[in-house]
């Protein structure tokens, strides 16, 4: 365990295979930070924040179209690693991805130059990063499949089920939901009103409450 009270093996399975000198360098260079809900973690103005280890909380990776419409690509939670914040070392990535905190999120950041040194000296690091990139690509392809081939009511139902809290509530505005789904606020509001008229959900100021989980699950299939 290190001073921040988390186990690096949870993030780097090959941790024990690294030389003690390398381990000490990583622990020494890690930067600890807390992002507040809604705060930007990474955007196109900063190409190399570094590798971000999510200790607790939730991050959203998304793209923005030319007309300003957002589309969520994937979500990162406890024990995930954010690679796109170190995109400058990945030469084939030529598009902009934005990352924001969906809730207060504690992270540890490994500076890019330290990551590059480790990747150059330990093939395990390169292999592991490649496996994470493959997983993220699968997430993005799944999102594109949903956008292209799935009806919007089904996508919205699935979104509500995924983002509900322990009280079956989703504390987001219609605009925020639209940003996640790459849609317009008016479309989201219209569909939510339809759900409410069928007693599937209840709308309240700043959020939504799920009333009929079974029906929402049917819609999401």
Automatic annotation (TrEMBL):
Pfam families: cNMP_binding (PF00027), HTH_Crp_2 (PF13545). Gene3D superfamilies: Jelly Rolls, Winged helix-like DNA-binding domain superfamily/Winged helix DNA-binding domain. It comes from Anaerofustis stercorihominis DSM 17244. Keywords: DNA-binding, Transcription, Transcription regulation. PANTHER family: CRP FAMILY TRANSCRIPTIONAL REGULATORY PROTEIN, REGULATORY PROTEIN YEIL. GO terms for cellular component: cytosol. GO terms for molecular function: DNA binding; DNA-binding transcription factor activity. It comes from the Bacteria. The keyword Transcription applies. This is Transcriptional regulator, Crp/Fnr family. Residues 150-214 form the HTH crp-type domain.
